[in-house]
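CO-FOLDING WORKSHEET

Operator: S.A.
Ligand of interest: pyridoxal-5'-phosphate
Run index: 474
Mode: holo prediction, single chain
Checklist:
[x] sequence pasted
[x] SMILES validated
[ ] output reviewed
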Amino acid sequence: MKYQDRPLVQALQNFHNRKPVSFHVPGHKGGTLSDLPSAVRQALAYDLTELTGLDDLHEPAEVIKEAEDKLANLYGSERSFFLVNGSTVGNLAMLYATVQPGDCVMVQRNAHKSIFNALELTGAIPVFLSPEWDDPTQTAGTVSLKTVKEALKKYPNVKAVVLTTPTYYGIINRDLEQIIEVCHSCSLPVLVDEAHGAHFIVNDAFPTSALELGADLVVQSAHKTLPAMTMASFLHIHSQFVKVERVAHYLQMLQSSSPSYLLMASLDDARYYAETYDEKDYESFRLYRSNVVRDLCNIARIEVVETDDQLKLLIRATGHTGYVLQEALEQQGIYPELADLYQVLLVLPLVKARDAEHGIDLVDKFKIAMEWIEGKEATSVRFNSFSSINFTSTVVYTATQLHRMDMEWVSMQDATGRVAADAIIPYPPGIPLVCAGERICQEHMKQMQDLLTSGCRFQGAINGKTKQVKVVLE
Ligand SMILES: Cc1ncc(COP(=O)(O)O)c(C=O)c1O
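OUTPUT RECEIVED:
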């Protein structure tokens, strides 16, 4: 079979066709020594390494370069990289490439933990920006232009801005283009964690990609929404502020020197999938989705919440938590992406015209799940409106400094004015109210008290039972 326009996939196939005898790594020798299930063993025949004709991820000059050039061409970047350790490594590399130890960096409070890890590793000092609360989904959304402008006034020495859009739930930062303009006018690079938006490129009906809106560095988990293998991701750069060579330098330090060819081939294939996704394909996806939404809405006590990203659907069972709905669906063999107090999150398949039959009995399974739920006692699920989570603040001690300090537990009354030893995270909404190393102010305490009284659970440096907070000894 010819894999036209997928140079890396084609190179792997050509190599395989020659029936090569392996005296090289990996040790499974083309799967022949493996006792894994036979389908996996067959795939291992393609699990190759940097052999003649297969190029080198860290010095790409042949097929990997060709494949990455095609990727850059599709997304309109200056250079695009294949990542074999998820958006996680992309977030680490983009921060390493952009900031120096001691630099201030604006970062969204509800960023992924890889961003917080990157801050710790680089020794950058975070300035936390609060996201807006998104009532329809009952989740933390994105950061507004107003918040960024205020933070720029308060912290004029920041060196970069790191944003997350879309969120896990598919909420888009509608101010992104303006935020980028404002930041660029202050010579600040904007780094975007677009882990959940690799598919935006396929059709105008999806939100516009951050790269198209002018972001400097953009990370995408191709494996989350495009047909790539788990971990396989993209990093794109198009910047007058950050050098391509620095990104390449950190990626070769942070990623394996033996990157998986299966992952890389799946990235080449995912790029091709996105590139060849045409109007007919989108029309079949649109139809598939609208049928699912219509039929689910027709089930009694099912509520469907749509977000900015058509690939995401939130489903609620009235009077029951998302966890109960998840349990009921899993009994029917339907596995949602996640559940929270209110809902389950479905990540729909980005079907093409040829395969619009995916999960064809989804709605029937939902009906059976709802029959099971009817027999369960209803819970009263209280919806929240977090109007006043708006703090823009920085840390007193960086994560590295915190690790060297002693800690103590103090009563909540005595915690005001002290520095939190760890993040204090109410669930929901799951955004740190106080981040590790921040000084706890009266407003924080008031919100903590209110949330505890309303029965909210906490994670991190707070013990809800003893009403104590873990602080550092200064
Ligand atoms: C917003 C966000 N960024 C980054 C990541 C990490 O992505 P990966 O799993 O590709 O390493 C995730 C994972 O869920 C995420 O939700």
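REVIEW:
The chain has a mean pLDDT of 93.
DSSP finds 16 helices and 19 strands in the chain.
[x] output reviewed
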